[in-house]
Amino acid sequence: MRIGKNSKKWFERIVLSCLIVVGIIFGGWLFFTTNFLHPFIHYLDLRGGIIYYKEPTNIIASNVLGFDEVRGKIYYITTNGIGVYNELNNDHVFILHKEPPNEIFRNSWNL
Fold first, then answer.
1. Which residues share a beta bridge with 94?
2. Which side of the chain, N or C, has fewer Cβ within a 10 Å radius?
3. pLDDT value at position 62?
4. What is the pLDDT of residues 74-107, one digit of tens each?
5. Are 83 and 92 in contact (CB under 8 A)?
6. Mean pLDDT of 50-78
7. Is 108 helix (H, G, I), strand (E, B) or coil?
8. Which of 20, 16, 54 is nearest to 34 (CA)?
9. What 3-state class would DSSP assign to 77?
10. For residue 89, which of 71, 108, 107 has the smallest C-alpha distance?
11. Once rounded to an integer, what is the mean pLDDT over residues 52-62?
12. How many Å apart are CA 70 and CA 36, to the nearest integer?
C-alpha cells in the first residue's frame, strides 16, 4: 500500500505540531515549577543563593550552598551553618550555627 504525497505531508505536519506542543508544555513546566512543596517558596541563585517566601525580601535563608526538601521540611546548608525550615507550620530551626573566630572580633576592635 502506497501513501500519497499529500497524505504523507499532512502526517508530517501533524507529528511536527504534536512535538511543538509537547515541547512548549515541557518547557513551561521546567520554567514555572518550584523546588518546594509550598508553591510560594522559591530558591534564587542570582543574589548569593537565597530561599525566600513569595518575594525576595521575605528571606528564609541566605548564602545557601545546598538544600533538599523531605516531607515538607527544607534542610539547607549556608555559609553560617545548617538549618531546617518546616513548610507546614512555618517553624524555623537553626541546627548548627558557625560563629566567626574570636580573632575577627579582636582585630575589629583594634582599628
1. 83
2. N
3. 85
4. 888 888 888 888 887 877 777 766 665 555 444 4
5. yes
6. 85
7. helix
8. 54
9. strand
10. 71
11. 83
12. 9
